[in-house]
Amino acid sequence: MEFRKINDDLTVSPQIAASDLSEIAAAGYRSIICNRPDGEGADQPGFEEIEAAAKAAGLETRYLPVISGKVQDTDAEAFGRALRELPGPVFAYCRTGTRSATLWSLSQAGQMAPARILMATKQAGYDMAGVVRRIVNGGKTPTDTGDASFDVVVVGGGAAGIAVSASLKARKPDLEIALLDPADVHYYQPGWTMVGGGIFEPETTARTMGSLIPKGVHWIKSAVAAFEPQNNAVILDGCRVVKYQRLIVCPGLKLDWAKVEGLVETLGKNGVTSNYRYDLAPYTWELVKGLKGGTALFTQPPMPIKCAGAPQKAMYLSGDHWYRTGILPRIDIQFMNAGGVLFGVKDYVPALMDYVKRYDASLNFFHNLIAVDGPAKTATFAVNTPDSEPFTIDVAFDMMHVCPPQTAPDFIRVSPLADAAGWVDVDQNTLRHKSYDNVWSLGDVMNAPNAKTAAAARMQAPIVAENVAADIDGLSPHAVYNGYGSCPLTVERGKIVLAEFGYGGALLPSFPKWLLDGTKPTRAAWLLKEQILPPVYWKAMLRGKEWMARPEKVTAG
């Protein structure tokens, strides 16, 4: 007997014996549902035998037999009704547990997000790929899926999605490309650090999505619910189906604000802010200007996160303002980092440490934010230093800039495209999926070991476009990604440490050292960030103009 827990209300299992009922009752279950028809297998106890043993153990029962592979909509409705009527928690079984898991999935489809259903069943050991369209369709069998078909489907209209669509369209003007994204607004997220530092106005970082979709690319304004790579299909909310010859996956990542207890309730008030949200970055600057003394916390969660330098960028720009206005001696800056180093590439650390000292900031490593009490202005951290017992600590604050925990989007984590950690599983050189030859991925969602930055996406987009174009022409992928990423660390107003690096921390500077030494704070790097990169983003990267981003090609020797 196996206990495969779906949630607190339901556990499913392969076939059980009458002798198992006492153990099931002892584990706290109050009802049994049998989804296996009598006589399906020669070694199978009949339901009457199970029912008698269940009654003796004080358990209620329900017999809802379903023929294997033939779960009807009415069966799912009956299963959902049984869950409501029977005392819980409920223990359901069939031959393998799959029918019971399927019935639960379909019965909950109208009430629960498809990704949550798929995650719950996946964690219990059941793959619901065969009924994903029905789950997306509210648990009902679709009568008209309304298939649309394209040469290439791009999932995600962020920096990566629009850039790769534009680069591919430039190479193959006749391709029928569809871009899937439900958002109305596209954001230049690298600008939010500057908004939080009082340098950019927030409006300059936002444009309508419709104004940025490359000419000739079809924009399908809908969210993705699930993938069927075995059928070359993407399932949209509402169970519409979009078919493809080739798929490019780049929806970004998920900011998991709810993972920190109390954070959602206090964001934007009580001195709690974040440059990771468009609407909150102006509040960061408001808090920085208004703080005249006290404790300022800057948090960084466990990796991976997008723009790993952003949490400390906020600290440096805030510290610089307090330094210039003469109130820094009255402010206690605390950097609370869940990791064990200030920055992952050691060549840039000396310059950063100079600014840590200038702003008299305390570095607290292995401190992970787990809870916030906004009204009490107290943050709770889990401290897990090497070679010591973990503990928690409460820290009072007057202002706190939070970088939220981050993960792949739910619909990616439960998909066949994901690796064990939930990220899209690609070859780190070609960015082609390891299992599905007609699938590629770029941006924050894929699992190559590079920094998750807009600069990385700027380099990846032409590489994916080049390799997809080659594949269409019957050639092997020949453009290679070296892991390039860039993090312009705003150490003070007017100076930046321009970190540029690739796989393994290898330095990959874009400019000669005499022009711009990225390991030192320079005015030139600041001008690049403030004045050059925004127009490069809007007018070049998103339009398929690959300025300083031409893909490196490798040919067979």
Automatic annotation (TrEMBL):
Cofactor(s) this protein cannot do without: FAD
UniProt-listed GO biological process terms: sulfide oxidation, using sulfide:quinone oxidoreductase
Molecular function (Gene Ontology), one example: FAD binding
Occurrences of domain Beta-lactamase hydrolase-like protein phosphatase-like (ranges): 3-110
Pfam families membership: BLH_phosphatase
Alphabetically ordered keywords of this record: FAD, Flavoprotein, Oxidoreductase, Quinone, Transit peptide
InterPro entries: BLH_phosphatase-like (IPR005939), FAD/NAD-bd_sf (IPR036188), Prot-tyrosine_phosphatase-like (IPR029021), Sulphide_quinone_reductase (IPR015904)
Protein name from the UniProt record: Beta-lactamase hydrolase-like protein phosphatase-like domain-containing protein
Species this chain originates from: Salipiger bermudensis (strain DSM 26914 / JCM 13377 / KCTC 12554 / HTCC2601)
Lineage of producing organism: Bacteria, Pseudomonadati, Pseudomonadota, Alphaproteobacteria, Rhodobacterales
